[in-house]
Protein 1
Amino acid sequence: MFSDLTDQLDALGARLREALASAGDHAALEGVRVRFLGRSGEITQVRRAIGTLSPAERPAAGKAINDAVAQFEAELESRSHELDARALEGELALAIDVTFPGIAPATGSLHPIRRAMEDACRYFERHGFAVVLGPEIETEYYNFDALNIPPDHPAREGLDSFYLRPGLLLRTHTSPMQVRTMQAHPPPIAIVVPGKCYRRDAIDARHSPMFHQIEGLLVAPGIHLGHLKGVLEGLFREVFGPKQAVRFRPSFFPFVEPGAEVDTTCPGCGGEGCKTCGGSGWIEIGGSGMVHPDVLRESGYDPAGVTGWAFGVGIERIAMVRQDIDDIRVLFENDPRVLEQLA
Ligand code: PHE
């Protein structure tokens, strides 16, 4: 009868499980397999019993047996894996070698922006400049008025700047620290100001509403543009390499006179012309000029007694050129996999 068969298979399964549990190695396991599933094993006896069933019952009986065999084989297999895992554990337990190096913890690294900023600051500190920080929330007075930027200047519109309330905004450049420093200290002044700046630019490959600058200011009797060129050349040699040159292009900023855009030799091609510099051999990296007499006066200095220069250089620009990154967003998305590569 069919129910007898089911009982037999259940009983067989129970015995098989017992045998599996006490099989301690692969040889014992093979013994179990032969005993239960081998050609003259117990399952064969059960199969023979099919002959005693009515023809109508046979197909179902055959299927029940095959299903049971598949199940038994799976159990043998999983016991075999269990034995492997246990053997491995045993070996490892014996193999503890206290002189083995440990698993090294993942180490972090400085962000490329931080690195560019620190390299620049190190250069200026070595040359006697003080590194000072200014507020990121600025008054309209320091961000614009004191820098000779008139009230009707387009840069003052909310379109370009983040205003917190009338008269108060996120600084659009690091230049406000020029007047803040000069008002607080008599000449001579030699400072750099690294830090974040904010402009209402749409985000794209070259623009981010938050970016970093390093401002420089040197004011003393007899300071001229030649000093600026020498200092900037030294800076670019520090951050890019020993062959950098500096090129000034006349430009206008209300707080300097004369004013110049600052270019340096494209580090990507050494000046030959490549994709990074658009074939020109130069990359634009900041603005500069001689501090405007109005700015000196606003700071309480006498333009007849002292002169000075100032510059503002883009930190992202340095980091991107150094790391050969062509999309500024890479610097701010902070994907750890990318940062690891840039380390
Ligand atoms: N503040 C200017 C800017 O952000 C750069 C600059 C700094 C120009 C100092 C001249 C002198 O564009």
Protein 2
Amino acid sequence: MIWNEEAECIAKDELEQLQLERLQEIVKVAYENVPYYRKKFDDIKLKPEDIQTLKDIEKLPFTTKNDLREAYPFGMFAVPRKDIIEVHTSSGTTGKPVVSGYTQKDIDIWSEVMARGLTMMGLTDEDIIQNTHGYGLFTGGFGVHYGAQKIGATVIPISTGQTKRQIEILCDFGSTLMIFTPSYGLYLAEVANSEGIDPKKSNLKAVGFGAEMWTEEMRQEIERRYGVPAFNIYGLTEIMGPGVAIECDQKSGLHVFEDHFYPEIINSETLEPVPLGEKGELVLTTLTREGMPIIRFRTKDITALKNDKCDCGRTFIKMERITGRTDDMLKIRGVSVFPSQIEKALLNIDGLEPHYQIIVTRPHLMDELEVRVEASPKLFSDEVKELIGIKNRIESYIEDEIGLRVNVTLVEPKTIPRSEGKAVRVIDKREI
Ligand code: DLL
């Protein structure tokens, strides 16, 4: 259990003072050590000393995913590469991924915030936690792992997949907490049921889920199937990974770990801040990150902040669950996918017309992605075996691009609806 009362129950004025000191420091470090930030500041004639109050954060330039991608691989590091002890990358992004680098201090902070969040779910050193998040470049596996180890729980680093094995281990090891993406959690429960196993009869006392969008109905379904409370975990590779904000037992929003991450909500059109409580795009600044300080990162995630007093005793501000994105990024089985990546793969193959649709469904509680693309009249008149060959080629191409196997359907020329305005490329039938 990690209950850091001094930090988590800090008085508002003390928190603001701490945030200001940390912001001033991080801005100075970024300016002095990261050429990208130096240039951006110089362009608008801003000096680190201009940050005198927290409100002055609004003078600072935004950072986008694209900026970070351009710095690929190590251009955003604020310390010599040798001080970076671990790297992760964002999944399936267009072009180069974003590299996130951590010093030992950053890993310690990551462990601390994740430990605080797992404590909210009731994890103690008596518990066994089954971590189904992927271990590797994805931040999910390691983030949860570090937090659970800091608490002293027994970690089962089983990673994603091997669904039947997951269920066997849940029963045999008596896992008391399980972490998954909401869609994988539902799928696991369904497979368990089909094996004649009822997850409600397991030793679980809670589950934690995150990494993709979900609805209250989905949470209720998870809670019904597992018979335990389900807690929301939010985070993103660029800022740290999971553990930026996590839900306490009140389940009325996620506490943002404000001593390490400074949240703002902006209107994504005007880029101006919106009043407290209103929805907009979440912007995050790392306040303590050493290896890769990030200033005003535009997450593209839509949420609202609320400063209500929480009965759990923590004073950190709460954010609502994410209800959408300002861009067209899809999360398919936890992997980020942009329609433009699929388009890029399609345009690389002869015999296809540039008309396609991406259809996302969740037939057996697992995300499925179908790409419908028009074959050229010439291709369409070819033999069936040619068509099958090209279908397989497109599927492999897309898999190389996004890292996921999708189902490609070649359709007759001129059958995909044409639009007069913005083409409707994505049809998401998952109801999330
Ligand atoms: O998904 C980090 C993570 C791992 C969070 C495990 C929670 C648990 P990325 O792959 O970089 O990092 O994807 C970040 O995923 O901008 C959101 O759009 C979405 N996302 C993450 N958590 C949630 C959540 C990890 N709880 C992107 N609810 C973010 C809704 C989420 N969307």
Protein 3
Amino acid sequence: MKKVITYGTYDLFHYGHYRLLKRARELGDYLIVGVSTDEFNNIKGKESIQPFEYRKKILEAFEYVDEVIPENEWEQKEEDVEKYDIDIFVMGDDWRGEFDFLKDKCDVLYLPRTDGISTTEVKNHIAKTWKVQ
Ligand code: C2G
């Protein structure tokens, strides 16, 4: 069984997330997603609208995701690749090169991001258009 892993915040799940996870899953037979905890988001300088538990449940319900684990720190990837017997590590290409250190343990692929959508853009749009009901 070919196992794939990827990591991210996955807040306000959108089409760019959908496309990344679908392509990642289609590279193998089993996809694990490491979802950034709220604490790790603080370290990443990211603030998500939805807490970790919500972001985790949405991904667990998604057909192309087989397992969701917490991403607590930058350093856990090497251990995860061994622990989960990973064959392919995948990230969007905004991360190109950042995780090449994993190449001695598994294949490392950076897939083209989906243009025109990001959680930040969604948040900014809502902030601009949202009228207090
Ligand atoms: N992504 C994409 N296209 C978009 C937006 C995001 O392909 N329009 C991809 C990103 O490249 C990433 C994944 O979707 O692979 C999740 O994106 P984020 O939730 O923004 O994750 P990020 O903050 O980049 O965290 O250790 C790695 C980090 O946790 C990655």
Protein 4
Amino acid sequence: MQIEVQLAKSAGFCFGVKRAVDTVYEQIEIQKEAAAQGKNALPIYTYGPIIHNEQVVADLEEKGVRVIEDAAALSALSEGVIIIRSHGVEKAIYDLIEEKHLTCVDATCPFVKRIHNIVQKESENGKQILIIGNAGHPEVEGIMGWCSSKATVVETIDEMKSLQLPSDADICVVSQTTFNFNKFQELVEILESTHYNVSVANTICNATEERQTEAKELASRADVMIVVGGAHSSNTRKLYEICSKECATTYFIQTLSDLHLEIPKSVRLVGITAGASTPNNIIEEVQSYVRRNF
Ligand code: F3S
């Protein structure tokens, strides 16, 4: 009997990252087309790496796409297309792009853009914005940059307990999209037990949770499970952890060349999932290898 291979539907890029990566490839085609028509083809830049995947960034670099890291590098440009990645950026970056007469192609994930709109509106209405998330993360920095007054960022229980804002503060809470839901709820409960006036917008995106729930379900049925993703990717490691608990024979690989698969005759189902920054072609390669060889 042939073994069955099942790929998790939510394996790999989430909607927002896929959209951003596709946007860069589209721009490459647009500029190529312009050059073919004898028009002025513009250099393409992404503001920060479009995704935390070296192979994708290297492929884009080979196609002429460069990464700019900060506002100073942006200021030094005189022409080009600037692609904003799915994490989004602060308003000041859009202003700078406009001021420098550069072309902005905005691939901010709509779920992140929604947070920008909330904090902009609420801070203009006089609310104190409190972001639950990691202060050093580019998404959080971007959100802060849409607030008309200084936002507060809280990540831990201790930080929430020691929060000191004016006693009449009217607080609007939002969350980094990838923050853990249970922890978010716990932090909100602490805040709500204080004397502050609090309104909460749950802006957590469920792409990560969906990927984890689906991986768990697939691993619970599979005899062998393969998790594909970067060695340093924390969300891939988490997937591996979840799958290993459900399926004793779980492999963690970066690419097909890491896979030294031995499948005993008794195996009926092989499951495959992948971390958020694993490109589709790598997932496809692994999938067709297993289908061909076993
Ligand atoms: Fe991805 Fe957008 Fe959610 S980038 S994780 S779909 S917020």
